[in-house]
Automatic annotation (TrEMBL), chain A:
<dbReference type="GO" id="GO:0005886">
    <property type="term" value="C:plasma membrane"/>
</dbReference>
<dbReference type="GO" id="GO:0022857">
    <property type="term" value="F:transmembrane transporter activity"/>
</dbReference>
<keyword id="KW-0132">Cell division</keyword>
<dbReference type="InterPro" id="IPR003593">
    <property type="entry name" value="AAA+_ATPase"/>
</dbReference>
<keyword id="KW-0067">ATP-binding</keyword>
<dbReference type="InterPro" id="IPR005286">
    <property type="entry name" value="Cell_div_FtsE"/>
</dbReference>
<dbReference type="Pfam" id="PF00005">
    <property type="entry name" value="ABC_tran"/>
</dbReference>
<keyword id="KW-0547">Nucleotide-binding</keyword>
<dbReference type="GO" id="GO:0005524">
    <property type="term" value="F:ATP binding"/>
</dbReference>
UniProtKB/TrEMBL annotation, chain B:
<comment type="similarity">
    <text>Belongs to the ABC-4 integral membrane protein family. FtsX subfamily.</text>
</comment>
<protein>
    <recommendedName>
        <fullName>Cell division protein FtsX</fullName>
    </recommendedName>
</protein>
<dbReference type="InterPro" id="IPR004513">
    <property type="entry name" value="FtsX"/>
</dbReference>
<keyword id="KW-0472">Membrane</keyword>
<dbReference type="GO" id="GO:0051301">
    <property type="term" value="P:cell division"/>
</dbReference>
<keyword id="KW-0132">Cell division</keyword>
<keyword id="KW-1133">Transmembrane helix</keyword>
<dbReference type="GO" id="GO:0005886">
    <property type="term" value="C:plasma membrane"/>
</dbReference>
<dbReference type="Pfam" id="PF02687">
    <property type="entry name" value="FtsX"/>
</dbReference>
Length: 228, 297
């Protein structure tokens, strides 16, 4: 569960990115965040992940008040949240398997568990046969699937996806959506910022629309609602 | 920390050291230069200090008594000298004993002095030792002002000069070494900064998936440590070999009453230990400096 109460966020350069946000997202919900470029979608997701700290307001994630989180506790908090970006962020020299295993190695998981979980998650995103490939040998959609696999390998309760289909063609995007829905059906909350009208209007979910740092619309089974 | 994790950190650290070979060589060179100077400086300063201390232990005041003094005056003098609080021992030395000492100490040439045995030109004297060698000068001047004292002399003069020189050398050396240490730290921190920049993406992903700061920091510590240790190898060899031959050549400086330099074992090994220690500190400090600001995300 994610809850924000009256959250304000100003970047150090003075840009006001969020101007009073209050919202509640329940466990296992699938939420789209839509809005024009610069509306504050990415900032909104960054706050949930403690990549940015709000100037004002309270953010609760899984019953934990993260505005009060100490620096040293942040890494442990993050282990409960998976993140996927438009640009995949894979390590180019590591294989698919190593890229995913990396996420478990750095949180000091045992080698035995690492092997087991990586294989399982590779199966989940349908890339078992490409475990030994390096990112450059994969299509964009496959790379994004690796990134998703890495994000969920630690079995987080929340998956944040900031424009996960932003760099992908429509066919590949549908593939990614199918995987995200599958993950969601397993009980993982998904918060996805997107510019894709097709996706939002086809795979109907809750839609939160933002403009100039505030929420202007919040509907269940909503529509994209903007012309592109 | 798990053993497998530690192994991983060391592997990473070693790989980074290897990867920016040019910067690595530059910073190892800086550490090496610094540590050679630190080593030589320590050897010189500690030995000079050792010699000065040894000499100072031997510093005695010799107060020559006027020939005209009567026995009662001498007794009075002895009582007065003993009454000075800082005085440890007072020994009466007859002029005959003194001549004997002199003849003995001069060896061959001393034979000429035997002529004086009949008509001894020397004075009776008190040999005074102070509790603290540093009070020697003070006590000497007090005795000098007493009645029936002809003159006072003591070996403090060149011990003082030695101490002064030593202090001067130490100050100049410290300034030089601080400058060098900071240069070395700066170079190491830059070397590591390059590694960090090269691995910025990797670090970003580590933070993304919840790696702790100390986990991220470790390989850079290791890299700094490796640079420090590699930089201390040559200085240690130079000090060990150099000091070994220096001691074997048996340098004893005549002016310093044949005081020996500090023995190779354990002194040279202690210096070697200090050199590695400083090397590691420089390395770790350098890495700390460059890692710190990259982790604030
Ligand atoms: N790191 C930053 N420093 C300063 N200002 C920033 C930073 N990141 C974002 N901003 C500003 O904050 C505002 C909101 O940005 P944000 O990235 O949240 O928008 P967005 O809705 O994700 O846009 P897009 O659809 O283009 O990704 C913008 O005006 C942006 O310029
Ligand atoms: Mg954005």
């Amino acid at each position: 569960m994610i809850e924000m109460q009256d959250v304000f966020m100003t970047y150090p350069n003075g840009v006001v990115a969020l101007n009073g946000i209050s919202v509640k997202i329940n466990q296992a919900e699938f939420v789209y965040i839509v809005g024009h470029s610069g509306a504050g979608k990415s900032t909104f997701t960054k706050l949930m992940f403690r990549e940015e700290v709000p100037m004002k307001g309270k953010i609760t994630v899984n019953d934990q008040d993260i505005s009060k989180l100490k620096w040293k506790d942040v890494p442990y908090f993050r282990r409960n949240i998976g993140v996927v970006y438009q640009d995949f962020r894979l390590l180019p020299k590591l294989t698919v398997y190593e890229n995913i295993a990396f996420a478990l190695e750095v949180i000091e998981e045992t080698p035995k568990n690492i092997r087991k979980r990586v294989m399982k998650v590779l199966d989940q995103v349908g890339l078992k046969n490409k475990a030994r490939f390096i990112p450059d040998e994969l299509s964009g959609g496959e790379q994004q699937r690796v990134a998703i696999a890495r994000a969920i390998v630690n079995r987080p309760s929340i998956l944040i996806a900031d424009e996960p289909t932003g760099n992908l063609d429509p066919d590949t995007s549908w593939e990614i959506m199918r995987i995200l829905e599958e993950i969601n059906s397993g009980g993982t909350t998904i918060v996805m910022a997107t510019h894709s009208k097709e996706i939002v209007n086809t795979v109907r979910k809750r839609v939160i629309a933002m403009e100039d740092g505030i929420i202007v619309r919040d509907e269940h089974r909503g529509e994209y609602g903007y012309e592109i | 920390m798990k053993f497998s994790t530690l192994k991983r950190h060391f592997k990473e650290g070693a790989r980074n050291t290897w990867r920016n070979s040019w910067m690595t060589i530059a910073s190892i060179g800086a550490v090496t230069t610094t540590l050679i100077l630190v080593g030589v400086f320590l050897v010189v300063i500690l030995n000079l200090n050792h010699i000065a201390n040894k000499l100072e232990e031997d510093v005695q005041i010799k107060a020559l008594i006027e020939l005209t003094a009567e026995q009662t005056d001498v007794d009075q003098l002895e009582a007065d000298i003993k009454a000075i609080p800082k005085v440890d021992t007072v020994e009466f030395l007859t002029k005959e004993e003194e001549l004997e000492n002199l003849i003995e100490s001069m060896g061959e040439q001393g034979q000429a002095w035997t002529l004086y045995e009949q008509d001894n030109p020397l004075n009776d004297a008190f040999v005074v030792q102070t509790t603290d060698p540093l009070d020697t000068e003070d006590v000497a001047s007090q005795i000098e002002q007493m009645e029936n004292i002809k003159s006072v002399n003591f070996g403090q003069d060149y011990v003082d000069k030695l101490f002064t020189f030593n202090q001067y050398a130490r100050n100049v050396g410290l300034v030089l070494i601080f400058a060098l240490v900071f240069t070395a730290i700066f170079l190491i921190s830059n070397t590591i900064k390059i590694t960090i920049l090269a691995r910025k993406k990797e670090i970003g992903i580590m933070k993304l998936v919840g790696a702790t700061n100390s986990f991220i920091r470790w390989p850079f510590f290791v890299e700094g440590m490796i640079l420090g240790i590699l930089g201390s190898i040559l200085p240690i060899l130079i000090i060990l070999i150099g000091y070994y031959y220096l001691e074997r050549s048996g340098v004893t400086i005549q002016q310093f009453n044949f005081v020996q330099i500090l023995p190779f074992n354990p002194f040279a090994f202690q210096i070697a230990g200090i050199i590695v220690g400083i090397g590691v500190c420089i390395g770790v400090w350098g890495s700390l400096m460059s890692v710190r600001k990259f982790l604030k995300v």
